[in-house]
């Protein structure tokens, strides 16, 4: 009998977050299983009961920093063939603390790359970038080929990582697949320090927790979003897209993929929350926040992504589906 396992290790940084957990479950549902999944996060699974186990695939949790050489030496070995690099300091936090953002977002990514170079391995590296790499006039008429012009520290750090990993891929030293993610909505759990946190909050809080929440931007602001289901499908798909298809029209390596998303507004999300889930729109308080508006205003609200779609990356159908997915998957 042929073993269902692929004899390799998969590393997931930031793997104890909600996307990391969903990614683990998705990888374990595949026909071909990894030999081992290593989960690195700055924090342990909380509560401990949320740690995932499997009958035949060892899942190793390691609490530590991607900046710790000893930790990276443990989690990246000669058996590592795929790295999902999700760990990051999020947008508003990176804007508030420049050093922390640079250390985790850029220095941490470089440390991962250097560990791979030290071992002489060339794993597939699926890196989560962001639409925050765009900015300026580009946001009004944006495509996957638009020039990057980040207007935040977070966007600049993600752009720097894109260039680093793209260059290593061009040189044949890694096999990077860089995904510019839309804003992921609807996120369960407690709010984080991301500037986009309100996008999930205006649905989650009235619908799940029956409590008030704040909308810090104009309700007609265009936002580019994707459901967690779409994001996980994209992460897994990115790791198996044939390398030879990741080229531009001139045949040069093209490692950056701007994922398809859904262009909508906070108003549309609130209406869908009421329509699909029966939530109370009066619990959403309009309270403009100039700092959040300044960051979100630099992000494109609509992006043309024909190349990504040609590679097989999919998009959510409509805003009602975004809310339905939250109700079905994450509303407990």
From TrEMBL:
InterPro entries: 3Beta_OHSteriod_DH/Estase (IPR002225), DenD (IPR050005), NAD(P)-bd_dom_sf (IPR036291). It comes from Gonapodya prolifera (strain JEL478) (Monoblepharis prolifera). This is NAD-dependent epimerase/dehydratase. PANTHER family: ADP-L-GLYCERO-D-MANNO-HEPTOSE-6-EPIMERASE (PTHR43103:SF3), NUCLEOSIDE-DIPHOSPHATE-SUGAR EPIMERASE (PTHR43103). One of its GO terms (biological process) is steroid biosynthetic process. Residues 11-214 form the 3-beta hydroxysteroid dehydrogenase/isomerase domain. SUPFAM superfamilies: NAD(P)-binding Rossmann-fold domains (SSF51735). GO terms for molecular function: oxidoreductase activity, acting on the CH-OH group of donors, NAD or NADP as acceptor.
């Amino acid at each position: 009998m042929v073993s269902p396992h692929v004899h390799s290790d998969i590393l997931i940084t930031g793997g104890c977050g909600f996307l990391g957990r969903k990614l683990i479950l998705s990888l374990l549902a595949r026909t071909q299983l990894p030999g081992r999944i290593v989960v690195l996060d700055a924090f342990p699974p909380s509560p401990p009961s949320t740690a995932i186990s499997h009958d035949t695939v060892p899942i190793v949790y390691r609490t530590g920093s991607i900046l710790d050489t000893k930790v990276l030496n443990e989690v990246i070995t000669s058996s590592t063939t795929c790295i999902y690099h999700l760990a990051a300091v999020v947008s508003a936090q990176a804007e508030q603390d420049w050093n922390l953002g640079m250390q985790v977002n850029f220095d941490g990514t470089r440390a991962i790359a250097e560990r791979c170079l030290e071992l002489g391995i060339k794993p597939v590296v699926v890196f989560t970038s962001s639409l925050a790499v765009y900015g300026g006039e580009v946001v009004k008429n944006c495509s996957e080929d638009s020039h990057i012009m980040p207007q935040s520290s977070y966007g600049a750090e993600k752009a720097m990582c894109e260039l680093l990993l793209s260059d290593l891929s061009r040189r044949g030293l890694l096999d990077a697949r860089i995904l510019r993610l839309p804003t992921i909505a609807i996120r369960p759990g407690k709010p984080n320090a991301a500037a986009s946190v309100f996008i999930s909050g205006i649905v989650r809080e009235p619908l799940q927790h029956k409590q008030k929440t704040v909308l810090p931007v104009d309700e007609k602001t265009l936002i580019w979003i994707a459901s967690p289901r779409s994001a996980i499908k994209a992460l897994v798909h990115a790791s198996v897209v044939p390398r030879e298809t990741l080229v531009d029209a001139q045949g040069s390596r093209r490692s950056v993929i701007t994922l398809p998303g859904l262009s909508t507004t906070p108003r549309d999300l609130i209406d869908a929350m009421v329509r699909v889930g029966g939530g109370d729109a009066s619990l959403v308080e309009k309270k403009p926040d100039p700092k959040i508006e300044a960051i979100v205003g630099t992000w494109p609200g609509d992006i043309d992504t024909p190349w990504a779609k040609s590679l097989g990356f999919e998009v959510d159908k409509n805003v009602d589906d975004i809310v339905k997915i939250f109700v079905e998957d994450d509303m407990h």
